[in-house]
Amino acid sequence: MNRQTLSKFLLVCSIAFGMAVLGSEASPNPNGSHEHETDDRGVLQAIAQAPAKTREWKNPYEDQPDAVLAGKKLFMQHCAECHGAHARGIGRALNLHLPYVQRATPGELEWFLRNGNVWAGMPSWSGLPEQRRWQIVSYLKSLH
Ligand code: HEC
User: What phi, psi does 88 have (nearest 5°)?
Assistant: First the structure.
């Protein structure tokens, strides 16, 4: 490599380096995108994040009127303070009659109840026995 080629090579390197620096400055601010995640549209995707396999899970209490009654009791005990006695929502806690909640499969709902959406104010119900979560799912589906 002679001196002239070397200086051209160095020039190309410094231009490429400069562009890389500018490029990284132009990329979106991670704090900005984090703020975006906390808006309502982000929150509405919580059920949508259920893994695909949950769609195949069957509610062992499906179509059992007793399960709907038991689920309603559990709802009054654990959920009504935030979602309202008729599950129509209060403040940030959603109206559970909304089509996108009702479109969720029983398995997706059970998964969501187990995980919650803690940063949005929806607790995790992993502490309840699984049977009770399915009963609550039966009740939610009966609102339809
Ligand atoms: C401490 C208050 C609180 C309690 C108690 C609570 N929730 Fe929630 N729940 C929330 C909030 C807040 C959201 C998110 C609302 C939003 O979209 O901004 C939510 C969301 C939901 C959703 C919608 C899922 C989604 O994609 O956002 C369902 C379904 C739900 N709750 C069911 C229940 C059930 C069933 C119970 C009782 C076992 C319960 N919740 C108890 C506050 C609560």
Answer: -95, 0
